[in-house]
Specification:
By secondary structure, the chain is of the alpha+beta class. Helix 8 packs across helix 10. It is globular. The model has no long low-confidence stretch (mean pLDDT 96). Bound molecules: flavin-adenine dinucleotide.
Length: 601
């Protein structure tokens, strides 16, 4: 059975040393995140996830969820108890607003907990994860009454939340949704329609489920401009907060799917269910985007979370499994063979995983800091800069993060050879579970178009210029430090490739928008690599300073420097070939017509 140990040392390194969270303690909420508090949260969350959630991961995969004839759903053995413990420990409350029962601490800490929970058990993590997205939308767009009615219970995880966008005929193009919302005399709406693929749509772990549903009011434009957002509880809520009648909605079936079997993916049927509009009519997509942005970052975390647990188990296997001899001569001549860890090709896979996972963790936590600074930054300028950075990084963390996370998970399976393909080792589950992160919350193709089609051009390219200026500045500073200069020069070259690709889009995409579509995926990957490069530069800078000052944890910092060097050697050069692909445009990609794709009999 695979095991998981939460990477608490690495998380503390990023929070305390790289992000230097203590330096923000003049901002609201940050003052309570003292070093002691950070240690406690990180260590206790790590323990909970390793001991309680990880052992249920294979159970959830094997048992899946069961729908009963009355539409109720039972989660796998142990999930309900584990959720009770999760609720009691308050893991879901860390970064939530204090006025509704949250702890009001920085999102950085909330993200760390989310990572550990998702690494230990992704299917489980989705129940509180989607609740977090629904909380974000109600907090931002709900009326005071809606906030009072739902947020306390949802933040306490007594009630969970869902997001209902997808319908059988539309997922990406939500302008086509058919679910109807008929206004009622009492100010509510009657919601009728079918939603599919609704994660955590029905289950037995909470007393109420709060569905956020996209629907169209009568006469609404037949496009994304006609969508409104509604809160539709499973049980109606009485004025005193107690539960009232069962609403007319139910889970029609559970999807049989490739992975995350412990999460109930439901077809949800709404039959005149009572709902209330959130925010303004026809502005539902904007409200839903708040939820989706929170969820997109959460899915980005899933990408490196599955890679982390697969990596941990692959390292253990590589040290144990003996095959062949090291090319440089036997490493352990007295044994029948050397551990496969000695082979450079195995090391390639492990180093790729290490460089990616630790870099992504730093990027996601830097992103989490921007989420906080967007609201709490000391000056208008700080808030605007944070907003630009996180809006640019969100599709990258989600899209690049999960593409590469899946890639790493399959490589970790590869380390196991044939045994990786056998269920009992658990590696194939990590591959299956990580696959979904590339698809939901907007496919990665959609993330790439969001980055290139919207974010690059927004406000005259202000966000990407801010990003370039940040990377340029840090490269310039690192070039003055002898030990870091070689890495800084490699990052400078990669950044140059990104700047050139950006310029190529500016010069060519207006004339032919397919040029943008044809290069968007590659651009998202260039930006992912450069962003991780920035993170490795920061981590290496801290590590070098610690070593120069003298430390009793030298091995940790030397490992960081070695991993940064590997990243510089093996990741950064890819930006050149990605840029060259972009510059070929869409001509060869779009040249053939339908007939050429159809196989002749
Ligand atoms: C396990 C699971 C859980 C899910 N959970 C939820 C949930 O909780 N709530 C919810 O509402 N939905 C959920 N979904 C739905 C998910 O978000 C959608 O499947 C996803 O957004 C893609 O929509 P689609 O499946 O209709 O694919 P389509 O939109 O049909 O896309 C098919 C392909 O075409 C590409 N494509 C489509 N449009 C464009 C374009 N304009 N430009 C370039 N490429 C394009 C896509 O990238 C994709 O490769 C879940 C799905 C699964 C499988």
């Amino acid at each position: 059975m695979p095991t998981y140990t939460a990477p608490t040392r690495d998380a503390r390194f990023i929070i305390n040393e790289v992000l230097d969270l203590a330096s923000y303690n003049n901002l609201p909420g940050f003052e309570s995140a003292t070093p002691d508090m950070i240690d406690t949260v990180v260590n206790e969350a790590g323990k909970f996830c390793s001991e309680v959630l990880a052992p249920l991961n294979q159970v959830g995969d094997k048992e899946g969820c069961t729908r009963h004839e009355d539409g109720s759903v039972t989660t796998p053995t142990g999930f309900k108890d584990a959720f009770e413990k999760y609720r009691e420990s308050g893991w879901g409350t860390i970064a939530q607003p204090e006025e509704f029962g949250g702890q009001g601490m920085p999102h950085v800490l909330g993200f760390v907990v989310e990572e550990f929970v998702g690494t230990a058990n992704q299917a489980f993590a989705m129940y509180p994860g989607l609740t977090g997205g629904a909380i974000a939308a109600i907090t931002a767009k709900g009326s005071d009454e809606q906030k009072e009615t739902y947020l306390h219970k949802m933040i306490a995880n007594e009630w969970t939340g869902t997001m209902n966008l997808t319908e059988p005929h539309c997922g990406t193009d939500l302008g086509m949704i058919r679910t109807k919302a008929e206004p009622q005399a009492d100010g509510s709406y009657a919601i009728t329609g079918t939603k599919i693929f609704i994660s955590a749509g029905e289950h037995d772990m909470a007393e109420n489920i709060i569905h956020l549903v996209l629907a169209k009011t009568p006469g609404a434009p037949n496009s994304s401009k006609g969508i409104s957002l509604f809160v539709v509880p499973k049980f109606l809520v009485n004025e005193d907060g107690s539960l009232g009648d069962r609403n007319t909605l139910e889970c029609g079936s559970i999807e049989e799917k490739m992975g995350i079997h412990g999460n109930s993916t439901c077809v949800m049927n709404y039959d005149g269910a009572k709902g209330w509009m959130i925010g303004e009519e026809h502005k539902g997509l904007a409200a839903m985007f708040i939820m989706m942005n929170a969820a997109r970052l959460g899915v980005g975390i899933q990408g490196y979370a599955q890679a982390e647990v697969a990596y941990q188990n692959a390292v253990a296997y590589a040290l144990d499994r003996r095959q062949g001899r090291a090319l440089s001569g036997p490493a352990e001549p007295e044994a029948a063979a050397d551990p496969i860890f000695v082979h450079a090709d195995v090391r390639r896979m492990l180093m790729d995983a290490k460089a990616y996972v630790e870099g992504m963790r730093a990027l996601a936590l830097w992103g989490a800091l921007q989420v906080d600074l967007t609201h709490k930054g000391a000056t208008e300028e700080d808030r605007a800069k944070a907003d630009q950075i996180i809006s640019l990084l969100t599709p990258v963390i989600k899209g690049y993060g999960t593409d590469k996370g899946y890639d790493v998970a399959t490589n970790m399976q590869q380390v196991f050879g044939g045994h990786g393909y056998i269920q009992e080792w658990g590696m194939e589950q990590f591959v299956r579970d990580s696959r979904i992160a590339m698809i939901y919350e907007g496919t990665n193709g959609v993330q790439a178009m969001d980055l290139c089609g919207r974010k690059l051009a927004q406000n005259g390219g202000a966000a990407i210029q801010t990003f370039f200026a940040t990377v340029d500045e840090e490269i310039a500073a690192a070039k003055d430090i002898e030990a870091l200069a070689p890495f800084a020069e490699k990052l400078e070259k990669a950044l140059g490739e990104q700047k050139a690709a950006t310029m190529w889009f500016m010069q060519n995409a207006m004339a032919n928008p397919d040029h943008l579509g044809a290069g968007a995926h590659h651009y998202m990957h260039i930006m992912g690599i450069v962003s991780l490069g920035l993170m490795w530069l920061r981590m290496a800078t801290v590590a070098q300073a610690k070593l120069d000052a003298g430390t009793d944890d030298a091995a940790f910092y030397e490992t960081k420097l070695a991993t940064a060097r590997y990243f510089g050697d093996r990741f950064l050069p890819d930006c050149g070939s990605l840029r060259r692909k972009i510059e070929t445009g869409s001509d060869s990609m779009m040249a053939l017509g339908e007939d050429a794709f159809l196989t002749a009999a």
